[in-house]
Amino acid sequence: MTRTILCFGDSNTHGTKPLPDLNGAGRFGHAHRWPSVMGQALGQGFEVIAEGHPGRTTVHDDPMEGDYRNGIRVLPSLLESHKPLDLVIVKLGTNDLKNCFHVSPADIAFCLQRLVRLIQGFGAGPEGGAPQVLVVAPPPILDAGCLAEMFAGGAAKSQGLAAAIRAMATRNGVGFFDAGSVIRVSPVDGIHYEAEAQVALGLAMADVVRDHLR
């Protein structure tokens, strides 16, 4: 039996490289994107679907980059197109730290709760049931590089994000993992991960998924 996992995330799930400037730096190859690393480590019996979109928020329309980056707008279509799903991994929250959104760690956790409850009630699991859900808190960000102004004030707020997300996951009876326990963001732009961190996260997530789906 093959178990199907949807990884719903932002640029770090997409595999965006740290940005030396706003012109961009491209994308890591498949071998250095954490969902691919996780799938390779899990081996046969698992199908991993990577749905990472740069700039994706939890529930916010981005006034500069477009409302199509709003996670809750696109999640229903992804659940429907990829069902049946055994597990949905939600790894969002970093882009909510942009200065333009003015939200707290508690606010971001409540936004993630909306996504969790949508997944639980959508019938995208096996036999029309609910897939399992695993929420991954992103590591704290840094005030660094070309994205520092866009995320002004976000580094301080990000220090409380994992605790707020953990509490939300506990309230809703879903799995939780703190990515900050195994990786750090790149000092190049303070947001994205170096290739080594992508690999480390993918290997750690394989262990988490095995335990979660027992």
How much helical structure, as a percent, in the residues? 25-40%
CATH class category:
Alpha Beta
Integer average pLDDT: 97
Question: What is the alpha-carbon Rg in Å?
Answer: 16 Å
Order of neighbouring strands in the sheet with most strands: 2-1-3-4-5
Question: Short description, anyone?
Answer:
36% of the residues lie in helices and 14% in strands. The protein is α/β, with parallel strands linked by helices and 214 residues long. The model has no long low-confidence stretch (mean pLDDT 97).
How would you describe this structure to a colleague?
It is built from seven helices and five strands. It has 214 residues and is α/β, with parallel strands linked by helices. It has one domain: SGNH hydrolase (Rossmann fold, 3-Layer(aba) Sandwich), CATH 3.40.50. It has a five-stranded parallel sheet with strand order 2-1-3-4-5, with helices on both faces. Helix 2 packs across helix 7 and helix 3 runs parallel beside helix 4. The longest helix is centred in the C-terminal third of the chain and has 18 residues. The two termini are 14 Å apart. The mean pLDDT is 97.
Notable characteristics:
Rossmann fold, five-stranded parallel beta sheet, 14% strand
What is the element layout, followed by pairings?
Elements: E1 3-9, H1 11-14, H2 34-42, E2 46-52, H3 71-82, E3 87-91, H4 105-121, E4 132-137, H5 154-158, H6 161-172, E5 175-178, H7 195-212
Parallel strand pairs: 1-2, 1-3, 3-4, 4-5
